[in-house]
Design brief:
The protein is α/β, with parallel strands linked by helices. The chain contains 13 helices and 12 strands. Helix 5 runs antiparallel to helix 7 and helix 5 crosses helix 13. The N and C termini lie far apart (81 Å).
């Protein structure tokens, strides 16, 4: 640029710009008040500005672009659900899983292998408490045990637990139990005739036809003595175990007058051990104990344990693992949503308890 042209440009800048004016390029501020500021530099800065804007829009487009092509790999041992892996930069290469599964994907398989090793020589027993409609949470407990590959060798149920326990002993999986539970309006089962008709429709006729050893707990009336039913007619045994005093008449069986097993043994951990189990998982859905746990009080606490019967305290002490689901009120509704809610509560409680037990075992062996 010639000197004359330079001088003319300088005069134009001075005439058309106020002192201290600035022009922004990205984050850079340059004063234009100087009389020696050439137009070529201004054009260069304009080009730089547009280049920065183009880079910014490119980054935004990359951020909001559709997800990259994904491939599905075979599910590995212990992995919950299929892992989805993407062709993406190294810092983004990770499985895309639901949040509830991400926490367990890497741990469930390890826990399964360790539990299988720990329980290889154990005879696993499952004790299912009474609790009326709350007993449907036992299905969620069984669902979680299935995910860990744990199949009880001995099954004992009291009251509502006898119904779910008999289904498990008959070889049913949790999905089949859920389907059966959804097909019945559970308040109808408070009637003895309806209950026995239900058992005849869905369960074997006798204990001998079950796939796993099973016992139903009842109470002899009026002595309130514990009666363990392990043979003979299965529907009548379950009916006796569920015969609520004041609601049902006693069930006559083998010369005994039998009522609800919760009178003598609400949580049958001791009968489970008596059958031969060396390692007992107890599912406790009794209303009073769940209410206390909801407010942070354990039934074995010194301040409240005296309010519980001695046989219930002994049952808690006899359990190697105690599962006490926190059941929402909606779970007591005889609807599909209530059924799913109560099953989910039992499953969540089982996963939480088994995870704590697993970590405690690792710390002991470390």
């Amino acid at each position: 640029m010639a000197s004359g042209e330079w001088g003319e440009n300088s005069e134009w800048l001075v005439a058309n710009s106020a002192p201290g004016d600035a022009w922004r390029a990205g984050e850079l501020l340059l004063p234009l008040a100087s009389p020696a500021f050439p137009f070529t530099t201004r054009y260069s800065l304009l080009a730089t500005r547009y280049s920065l804007l183009a880079t910014r829009y490119s980054l935004l487009a990359t951020r909001y672009s559709p997800p990259p092509l994904a491939i599905h790999l075979p599910t590995g041992l212990g992995q919950v659900g299929p892992g989805r892996y993407t062709f993406s930069p190294p810092w983004q290469r990770r499985p895309i899983l639901p949040f509830s599964h991400r926490c367990r994907t890497r741990t469930v398989g390890v826990q399964q292998r360790h539990m299988a090793n720990m329980l290889a020589s154990a005879k696993l027993g499952l004790a299912l408490s009474g609790g009326g409609p709350r007993g449907l949470a036992h299905i969620g407990v069984i669902k979680a045990l299935e995910s860990y590959g744990l199949q009880p060798h001995f099954i004992v149920g009291t009251s509502a637990g006898s119904i779910v326990g008999a289904m498990l002993a008959a070889g049913m999986k949790w999905r089949e139990m859920r389907a059966i539970a959804a097909s019945i309006f559970w308040p109808e089962l408070f009637d003895g005739h309806n209950l026995e008709r239900f058992c005849k429709q869905h369960l074997p006729a006798t204990f001998a036809e079950l796939q796993y050893p099973f016992a139903a707990i009842a109470s002899e009336w009026p002595s309130r003595q514990l009666v363990v039913l392990q043979e003979g007619n299965l529907p009548s045994a379950i009916s006796a175990s569920c015969a609520l005093p004041g609601v049902r008449r006693p069930v006559l069986r083998d010369g005994l007058s039998l009522l609800d097993g919760g009178i003598a043994c609400p949580l049958p951990t001791l009968p489970t051990r008596a059958m031969g189990a060396t390692w007992v998982i107890a599912s406790d859905v009794l209303g009073i104990s769940s209410l206390l746990r909801a407010v942070g009080v354990e039934p074995m606490a010194v301040t409240v344990r005296r309010f519980f019967p001695s046989h219930y305290r002994q049952a808690l002490e006899a359990a190697d693992i105690l599962i006490s689901p926190s059941i929402p009120l909606v779970g007591l509704l005889p609807t599909d949503s209530g059924l799913d809610a109560i099953i989910a509560a039992g499953e969540a409680a089982t996963h939480a308890v088994l995870a704590r037990w697993f970590h405690a075992q690792l710390q002991q062996t470390a």
